[in-house]
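STRUCTURE:
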């Protein structure tokens, strides 16, 4: 299922519509006609007939932006995401569900998320007695990143609640965008401390929950599911630049983005990584700059973080070094880009 008038997207840019299946219902709850709103963006309502239908990540982001503009609802992504759960993930959701414990379930989610969505990456990070499940967007040209992030965080919250049970509570929920004018929908749904203007979208919770056994664990069924997922992974494949892009988003935010550090993740030497990327028509530095530029634009557009804070997040020596790089990428300073972006958004309303 594709947008009218466009060629089918390459598999490397697609995602299952599953996690966005609640969009028509969310539009109805806001008093809008889903068919009319979707048609205004060039999409058919039938796209949502089957969770296995696919759409490009960029097209999905433009659709969400259009729906927000049409309804005026600034928490539409949250409304959609709070209806998503393991069932939204299809085959991968079953693999997660039948894992032996929460830790293994989340590691499977992180490992195979690319079969569900191409354009973002999940990461499970441990810090002392806390665990953090993150969702990072790496697809360039993505709009409505605040809505996508809200939906992803809500979905991760639901998945964790399903795996851990009603006694589970997050320590903190983080959003990579500024605090909305009306924060009540967020407080009502999450019931936990909220941190806006963060560099990342994440759910933070006590790490002890990773050892929590899952009552539905079924080793035999899980082996069967794993075999099916392995077959899917072999069918989809991935070029090396695509794999590096997924890794770099998380690596940049963890200050682990040197070429030797990234090469180690692929069990190869940095020279081998460089040679293989060159054979694909790109370079590690180009992908690194692309990742930094994408993160910088998201943080400038969606948060109130100061330029020096963004520079620190991206591991620049100081704000001036970041500003020089950003001017090279975009032709303007970060401050001017933010001002122009804000003006463009206001004109679009």
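SEQUENCE:
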């Amino acid at each position: 299922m594709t947008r009218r008038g466009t060629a089918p997207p390459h598999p490397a840019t697609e995602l299952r519509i599953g996690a966005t299946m609640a969009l028509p219902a969310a539009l109805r709850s806001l008093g809008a006609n889903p068919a009319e709103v979707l048609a205004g963006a060039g999409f058919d309502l039938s796209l949502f007939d089957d969770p296995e239908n696919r759409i490009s990540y960029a097209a999905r982001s433009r659709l969400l932006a259009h729906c927000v503009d049409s309804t005026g609802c600034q928490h539409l992504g949250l409304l959609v995401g709070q209806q998503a759960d393991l069932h939204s993930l299809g085959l991968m959701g079953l693999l997660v569900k039948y894992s032996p414990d929460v830790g293994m379930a989340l590691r499977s989610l992180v490992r195979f998320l690319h079969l569900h969505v191409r354009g973002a990456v999940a990461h499970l990070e441990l810090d002392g007695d806390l665990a953090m499940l993150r969702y990072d967007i790496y697809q360039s040209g993505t709009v409505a990143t605040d809505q996508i992030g809200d939906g992803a965080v809500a979905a991760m919250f639901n998945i964790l609640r399903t795996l851990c049970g009603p006694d589970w509570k997050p320590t903190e929920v983080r959003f990579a965008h500024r605090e909305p004018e009306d924060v009540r929908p967020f407080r009502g749904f999450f019931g936990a401390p909220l941190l806006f203007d963060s560099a990342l979208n994440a759910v933070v919770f006590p790490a002890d929950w990773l050892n929590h056994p899952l009552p539905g664990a079924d080793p035999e069924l899980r082996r069967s599911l794993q075999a099916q997922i392995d077959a899917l992974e072999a069918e989809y494949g991935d070029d090396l630049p695509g794999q590096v892009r997924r890794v770099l988003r998380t690596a940049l935010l963890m200050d682990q983005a040197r070429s030797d550090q990234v090469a180690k993740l692929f069990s190869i030497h940095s020279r081998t990584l460089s040679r293989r990327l060159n054979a694909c028509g790109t370079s590690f530095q180009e992908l690194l700059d692309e990742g930094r530029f994408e993160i910088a634009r998201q943080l400038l557009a969606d948060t109130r973080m100061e330029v020096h804070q963004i520079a620190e997040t991206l591991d620049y020596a100081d704000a001036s070094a970041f500003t020089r790089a950003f001017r090279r990428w975009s032709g303007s300073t970060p401050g001017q880009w933010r001002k122009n972006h804000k003006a463009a958004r206001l004109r679009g309303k």
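REMARK: Residues 1-13 have pLDDT under 50 and may be disordered.
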